[in-house]
């Protein structure tokens, strides 16, 4: 981990098609393919990034782009990238309704074993009914989904506990009888949860290591960060926070703004509405986001301007209490190189990231 005074850097990876914008403008069509993801991972590692974080999707959002409709499954994706890299930490994202926790305990321990404990898990309770209905699954109401996710994480932690006692668990969703899963990770994998609803935050504060969130503005972040951290502290725990900003910079602020307007002008309105309607019905977590904001960045916070301006905004994000940013980019390979040459040196001079 980086020091507590440093901002951790990660990449919100393009393992799904049409990331990060719900638009036909500026999209690199083949970014989702594994060879591209591996090059991006190795580039991020060479620049000193700390994390790679994937999206998990089972069905796209229709429209002209079918946003996120083609995707790489994230446990197998992580296995390959963990072998290709040496230092960077890599998460998998799993939907709780689709996996038994004993299966994920085994998969996770395997990934931790082959990577010397560089693997982490992002648990998603599920929100897109259009995804799950094709599998014949009906999602529980919001509060019940997080009750199930709590049971899921409790089982994982019990199976991964190095004390090694057999696990017994009874809930509405799982029955574990003298459960054992070997090997166990040498260190407890980091567990993240995305969601800013009260149910999500309560579960995260009690059981998770990371709160992966999104705010509609930098000004909104302190309230979100303070809320989850104070909940965790009241239970004698610490939870770190991460957001996924969309970085768009050029020679001038006007050039960056013009590029953003081009993305919005070419938005896939049908896919954006399906995305926004689905997540609003599922959790209400993005009530402050407009359709244009969703189309521009897929729910990430846009950071616009010159390289200096983007660096200043990243400093403000860190000063708000955010511990890590998982950046999204228009052309990941091109823009990661640009970030390393143009933005990262400024952040280092500012003392925002480690030198």
UniProtKB/TrEMBL annotation:
Keywords, ordered alphabetically: Flavoprotein, FMN, Monooxygenase, Oxidoreductase
Top-level taxon: Bacteria
InterPro entries: Luciferase-like_dom, Luciferase-like_sf, SsuD_RutA_monooxygenase
UniProt GO BP: alkanesulfonate catabolic process
A single MF term (Gene Ontology): alkanesulfonate monooxygenase activity
Pfam families: Bac_luciferase
Luciferase-like domain span: 32-323
Protein name: Luciferase-like domain-containing protein
């Amino acid at each position: 981990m980086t020091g507590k005074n440093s901002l951790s850097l990660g990449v919100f990876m393009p393992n799904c098609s049409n990331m990060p914008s719900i638009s036909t403008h500026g999209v690199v069509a083949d970014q989702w393919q594994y060879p591209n993801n591996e090059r991006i991972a190795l580039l991020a590692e060479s620049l000193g990034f700390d994390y790679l974080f994937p999206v998990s999707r089972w069905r796209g959002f229709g429209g002209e782009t079918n946003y996120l409709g083609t995707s790489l499954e994230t446990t197998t994706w992580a296995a390959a990238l963990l072998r290709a890299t040496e230092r960077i930490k890599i998460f998998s994202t799993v939907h709780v309704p689709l996996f038994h926790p004993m299966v994920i305990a085994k998969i996770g321990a395997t990934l931790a074993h082959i990577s010397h404990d560089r693997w982490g898990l992002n648990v998603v309770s599920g929100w897109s009914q259009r995804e799950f209905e094709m599998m014949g699954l009906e999602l529980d109401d919001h509060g019940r989904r997080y009750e199930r996710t709590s049971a899921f994480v409790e089982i994982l932690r019990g199976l991964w506990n190095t004390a090694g006692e057999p696990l017994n668990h009874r809930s509405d969703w799982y029955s574990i009888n003298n459960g054992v899963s070997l090997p166990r990770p040498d260190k407890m994998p980091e567990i993240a949860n995305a969601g800013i609803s009260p149910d999500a935050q309560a579960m995260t504060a009690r059981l998770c290591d990371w709160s992966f969130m999104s705010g509609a503005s930098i000004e909104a972040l302190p309230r979100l960060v303070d809320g989850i951290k104070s909940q965790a502290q009241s239970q004698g725990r610490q939870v770190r926070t991460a957001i996924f900003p969309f970085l768009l910079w050029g020679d001038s602020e006007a050039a960056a703004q013009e590029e953003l307007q081009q993305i919005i002008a070419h938005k896939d309105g049908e896919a954006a509405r399906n995305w926004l309607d689905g997540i609003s019905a599922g959790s209400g977590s993005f009530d402050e986001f407009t359709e244009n904001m969703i189309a521009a960045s897929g729910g990430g916070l846009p950071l616009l301007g010159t390289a200096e301006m983007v660096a200043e905004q990243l400093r403000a994000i860190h000063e708000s209490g955010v511990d890590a940013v998982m950046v999204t980019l228009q052309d990941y390979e091109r823009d990661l190189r640009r970030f390393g040459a143009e933005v990262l040196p400024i952040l280092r001079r500012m003392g925002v990231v480690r030198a």
